[in-house]
Amino acid sequence: MRHRKPLARPAAAGLTAAALALAAACSSDGGSGDAETYTWWDPYPQHTDDSAWAERVDACGEEAGVTIDRTASDTTDLTNQALLAAQEGTSPDIILLDNPAVSTLADTGMLTTVDELGLDVTGVDENLLAAGVVDDAAYGIPVGANTLAIYYNAEILEAAGVDPASITDWDTLTAALAQVTGNGDKGMTFAAIGTEEGSFQFLPWFWGAGADLRDLDSPEAVAALELWTGWLESGYAPNSVITNSQNTTWEEFLTGEFGFALNGTWQVNSAAEADFATGVIQIPAREGGIAPAPTGGEFLIAPVQADAERYDITRQIVECMTTPEGFVETATTFAYYVPPTAEGQEALLEAEPELEPWVTAVREAKGRTSDNLGTDYPKISEALWTAVQHALSGSATPAEALQQAQADAEAALG
Amino acid sequence: MTTTSVDPAGRASDGGAAGPGPAAPARDGRRRRNPAGAARRWTAIGFAAPLLAYLAVFYAYPLWRNIELSLHDYTVRAFVQGDPAFAGFEKYAEVFTSNAFGPALVNTALFTLVSIAFQYAIGLALAVFFHANFRLSGVLRALFLVPWLLPLIVSSSTWAWMLNSDHGIINSVIEAFGGTQINWLTSPDTALTAVIIANIWLGVPFNLVILYAGLQQIPAEVYEAASIDGATAPQRFWRITFPLLRSVSAITLLLGFVYTLKVVDVIWIMTTGGPGDASLTLAVWSYREAFGTGQPDFSPAAAIGNLLILIALVFGFVHLRMQRTWERS
Hints:
A: alpha/beta; D-Maltodextrin-Binding Protein, domain 2; B: MetI-like fold; 2 strands
């Protein structure tokens, strides 16, 4: 230790120099591209630069008379990148971002509202637009929406003598599960993992019981969680749902051993290619009818720029991506997107009538950050998925777990 | 953020070794104040500068930033706008009084200590076994390194798949022998055990390699002398191998401790710290706060990260202290 002391002074000098260099690096404003180049971020790294998707983005840039510099990274990464860029004043012109993150970014003041951008969003379905609305101002426009429904294995259901059309509420669904498992097959698989995906899959049941995210320990919420724990106890659903992600769930379903799987629009193609016949039914609400499922899908958002004159071109690019034809093209490119406007939905159904159940599901769907939950949603959601985990793993009863969740959510929201 | 925790401890010993070089001429120069001395001093600083710049950019700055994050209230909005309110130790208080703190601390202790105890014991046993240098021992030893070479996402996912409650291979074996299904990853009673088992498997190669290298350095004559004196195999192990491996063991355990303390990936992939908080360690908690939810909470995450750095640092000092005592004796 003793002989290291003389190092202290140069070390301090070096530290100061490095800190200065860093400070300089941070403050030097990279900004977005020049007047001819507009930057675009999206969460589709699987679509490389020569893909149809990238070409469409480029084409919209050309139409507006500029070139688009597109960067793709995965969803979680994209949110963090967006925050960092905003902090450094280097935000891109356009980001395509997962809808629950929109209100979080909007809250930081880094996004323009559609009014500031001069974008007309009147045609967009209100339930879909709601995910991006904070304090009555809309931030961004959905490029498409997806949601959850129940896939079934037609062969297993037939063998067990279950008519999918008979499933109209929770009781009939549970009865169908009993019939399927009674016949020697496995019942239903879903994802109850301790992340946002777990909440995403629980919400249709939560909302379908009539529960409200502001009131996690209501009797309705307890009923929804008891439905899930009941399925696990009766063996209608496997114990592994506690660690299942939606992808794992889908792989379980593809083994052909399960009667039902809760999954999303994005599996439509995969279901068609499965080794067995599949079908889709809507998630039933507790007393019948369709339960509102949470909406998934991305929003086109425009971060605030130092140079407000850029917004005009930005708007043109966004408009180009969101024409009815544009929506349908997006939908077919990704094979799992339902257009967010009535016009777009009709055009899609004309092209692909078999997507009808999904259009219905999306129309009934509900944004997770809607009801003006906004940035409160992520905290409530964390409490909710934790409660689901506790109840399913048996470390607490559904009522206890949800009581704790409500207390945690209240504490987190301050 | 938490990955820096390894470095202060690791660097502490490195810095000590690098110190004497540039330092000696500097002291010289100050005493004589002649031009040659000054030139030598500048040369010394010149040589040290890249290292110092590296340390400043990659160690000092992140560390400082982490402390700064933990002392302010960085909401997402404050993070972007750069105007966080100063919170003092409020975030630390929040962490300490949180419901998750107690379980996370106990889990961290169990996860770390049980993991390294088994990793060390198994690693040492294997090292001694391979030291016998029988035929194929080289090939076998290489095979034992596989867990180390696999990307963590692959090995963790494989473990998660093997430990799956309903169709995992481990439960199939247990059931084939008449046992009942164990919900490894999905029951609060076994989740921590399950991730510890996977982590032990991952850490054995590291222990094996270092301890095997340590064994090579023990002179063969000592063993010869012992066998002439009629020492049995257990005696040779406990009286020769084990004591002579002391300093290698100490550094293996210290590194193992620091590595295990900051493990996030294995646990995150297998259980995300769940079910509930059943397998939540401090490192996983920090990750969960910062990146695991839709809304990043950087300040508490940084506070937990700093806590981990402190723990690692304390054990680093204990190690230095122990080493000095041994050198003296």
